[in-house]
Design brief:
3-stranded antiparallel β-sheet, N-acetyltransferase domain-containing protein, Acyl_CoA_acyltransferase, GNAT_dom, 11 strands, 8-stranded mixed β-sheet, alpha+beta, 249 residues
Length: 249
């Protein structure tokens, strides 16, 4: 499973607006933001890695005006962490990732007064981006956020927003474009007034359900907190491996 997830991560990076192929690394860059969470590299599974490769990666990121950063499944490149630490990188986090299959998925009811829809217009995408941004401590959504959601949908990914009967967006979530019949679920966010009602679980379950209805075999994600971990376990996700987040200041 580790290698399958890592191969999918690398394949998705190769679909970014700007792609850098640096030795055994693939980097995906976003021209609209310098956010390190949208600009990072990952190793090609099984490719040999040297100190010179790391130096070249650092130079390429610096030239692009981006912070050198990696996200990857730990077992896919076991020698990489030591090379990065020797080059001055600092570990941000080491997380377990979880997977769900059609057999393990548990349906979760949508709270009363809310409906889940795939946004088909830019105003609805903007409302979703703003609601999810608010859930994560941001207070606005940019045109680039809207375009990013639209591009994901155009490439086969899923965006799902929760709206009240009055048209207010309560939250949302997404699944990335499929690779090797699997997809990453992410950005599950619910605004404060709509929490503690099971909405996050309902969004997560419905995103996964729609993925599986399109023929995908595995949904995977990471939990950012104990609360989200409990939500995802309720939906049917189980631990499967570890990923490393590491960057150079």
């Amino acid at each position: 499973m580790d290698l399958r997830i890592q191969r999918a991560v690398v394949s998705n990076l190769r679909t970014r607006s700007r792609v850098l192929e640096i030795g055994p690394f693939v980097a995906g860059l976003d021209p609209d933001t310098t956010s390190p969470y949208l600009n990072y590299a990952s190793p090609v599974p099984g490719a040999p890695i040297t100190e010179a490769d790391v130096t070249a990666l650092i130079g390429a990121f610096r030239s692009a005006g981006r912070k050198p950063r990696f996200e990857y499944v730990c077992s896919s490149a076991p020698e990489l962490e030591a090379l990065l630490l020797a080059a001055g990188f600092t570990i941000e986090a080491r997380h377990q990732y979880l997977i769900c299959t059609p057999q393990s998925l548990t349906a979760c009811p949508v709270p009363e007064g809310l409906r889940l829809v795939e946004p088909g217009t830019d105003p609805d995408r903007a409302a979703m981006a703003a609601a999810v941004g608010e859930a994560f401590g941001e207070s606005w959504a940019t045109d680039a956020d809207v375009a990013r959601i639209r591009r994901g949908q155009d490439r086969g990914g899923i965006a799902l927003a929760a709206f009240t009967d009055g048209g207010e967006c309560a939250g949302g979530g997404q699944a990335g474009p499929p690779q090797d019949r699997l997809s990453e679920v992410g950005g599950i966010g619910v605004r404060e007034p709509f929490r503690k009602r099971g909405l996050a679980a309902a969004i997560t379950a419905e995103v996964a359900h729609r993925m599986f209805a399109r023929g995908l075999e595995i949904a995977w994600l990471e939990a950012g907190s104990d609360d989200s971990w409990r939500v995802y376990e309720r939906v049917g996700f189980v631990p499967a491996g570890h990923r490393l987040y590491i960057s150079l200041g």
